[in-house]
């Protein structure tokens, strides 16, 4: 069974276009159902959103059906590859903030809108399928697995930048979780705000124990980042040999890396841009749950810089991992070294 599965999976360039067609039909149908029923696909906090987005989903689905269907019939032509990447970009934009929904579910909280969450999941799956279809004509025959290698120095410097960007963020969270005061807010006030905003029992329990859940996720994010740039991120430890092999499947680190990068990088970059305008006095910084706009601005800078720098570093690291773990073109030869951008 495992051999049959491996053989089928290795033939993904031959079936991925058909899988993309099936996804596109499903996605277009989902958008049509939302549009005809007036169901909102964007949550605005008050339970209302733009139901017209359903028609945009229909358009994306129909275009995806046409392009991927043409790939099935005529093969992967240059013009079709360009269209696939365009639709992939649109699907990726639609899947924005999916990571935030995943985080809320991890801590036992419900998502703001189930329909919106389903739309993001479908869009994320479509982005992966569309990208795979666009790449399906570039896999050389008779390839060999590369030996684990480290990322180039530039990529590792980006990983250091992404790691250090989270230090002020983690320190701020630690101060609050330990009962201290930062940005005019005490740990007790932060805990009360979390409870008022509907935080789950798991989230509140961790906070009461001095463990901030978002800081723990930041640690996991840094672990993922370094796994993408160091050789150990491509090989399972010896004690995990029961998993069926020493090599780490490429999708295992790349899926969370791409999901995190697609959410945190634009969220952080846009947030930093807004904070620049607020600092310059062009726009007014909303106070939110803080005691003053200045406190909100300080905390905002710490959070948004961390998200932006880490998100960009994750993009750089994921691209390097993708390139370094591609199969080599010479059959039966393992190519190692620390090269590969």
From TrEMBL:
<feature type="transmembrane region" description="Helical">
    <location>
        <begin position="83"/>
        <end position="107"/>
    </location>
</feature>
<feature type="transmembrane region" description="Helical">
    <location>
        <begin position="297"/>
        <end position="318"/>
    </location>
</feature>
<keyword id="KW-0472">Membrane</keyword>
<feature type="transmembrane region" description="Helical">
    <location>
        <begin position="55"/>
        <end position="76"/>
    </location>
</feature>
<feature type="transmembrane region" description="Helical">
    <location>
        <begin position="21"/>
        <end position="43"/>
    </location>
</feature>
<feature type="transmembrane region" description="Helical">
    <location>
        <begin position="214"/>
        <end position="233"/>
    </location>
</feature>
<feature type="transmembrane region" description="Helical">
    <location>
        <begin position="154"/>
        <end position="176"/>
    </location>
</feature>
<feature type="transmembrane region" description="Helical">
    <location>
        <begin position="113"/>
        <end position="133"/>
    </location>
</feature>
<keyword id="KW-0812">Transmembrane</keyword>
<keyword id="KW-1133">Transmembrane helix</keyword>
<feature type="transmembrane region" description="Helical">
    <location>
        <begin position="254"/>
        <end position="277"/>
    </location>
</feature>
<protein>
    <submittedName>
        <fullName>Uncharacterized protein</fullName>
    </submittedName>
</protein>
